[in-house]
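Feature request, filed as a ticket because there's no other form

It would be nice if the structure record came with a short human-readable summary line next to the tokens. Right now we just get the raw output. Example of a typical job, pasted below so the devs can see what we mean:
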Amino acid sequence: MSAKTAAVLAKVRRMIPPMLENFHKGQLGRVAVIGGSQDYTGAPYFSAMASARLGCDMSHVICTPAAGAVIKTYSPNLMVHPLMRQSPPEAQDSAVSEGPTSADKIASPIIDMLARLHVLVIGPGLGRDPLMQDTVERVVRAAKDKGVPIVLDADALQLVQKDLELIKGYTEAVLTPNVVEFDRLCKAAGINNSESQSGTQRVEALANALGGVTIIQKGKQDYISNGKVTLVDDLEGGRKRSGGQGDTLTGSVATFLAWRKAYIDQLWNDPETPRLDKQEMIGLAAFGGSAITRECSRMAFLKRGRSLQASDLTDEIHGAFMGLFGEVDESSSKL
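Raw output as currently delivered:
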């Protein structure tokens, strides 16, 4: 890895909680993934499991009942809440689903959960059903009001594309678009995404247009920017691109964001000074998630080659963490 990447990872490591005996369940991360519909059950599972395997204490999936019945069979370690609903068959082709009252009703118990969560991931397996999208919009607005960090990916980016004001200026938001999604967001923001621009220039232009949200532009290198500070993750990844790898990214970023809260709350002592800045840590969390995902991909590809699947990344998360960060020293981190 480059010297710059190593220096950033050293900062990221400061955000990682040591395993202290005085911690109790939930302090080191309560993350919920909102997604999972009748046709898409793998994506929310991979995201939630990435969060859990990286070290989040409590990992939730909020999905439809049909998806929930399936996801529960994947792992007993996830807490599955079948609170989302898809439009009735006769309404699925309509621009308006069952109306705002239905979306409000569905969103209500999810919004009630926000006080018990540290981070939301929205998008994996969400689909484009109007009622699902309407519900998520209400949850996003409520999360903003409560200051809950949000990671948006996949079909949640459709909401942003249609209404940039939904997350514009909300600096606790992290977007993880692929190449196609990035171009669509640029078009929606009126940005001329010229090939003559560098990756840094493109991601900074979009981040600034969205008012300082953090964007991870996925690609050969991952460009991470809030418009003011840009980090470039040049770690080697695997050469196989299979569906679901981006879900490892969202879950990993979410766990680092949850650890950010633990750091801000000073649940352990960081012996280095000055302490990490609250806003800087958004970018560091995004970089940490990016690094874990790329290292998982590299390790899995070495073992699986062209047969690599998203589940293979899940199996490599702990090994990737240890390779990048090692054991976090408990003795120097006690209060």
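Something like this underneath would help us a lot:
Confidence is low (pLDDT under 50) at residues 92-100.
The radius of gyration is 19 Å.
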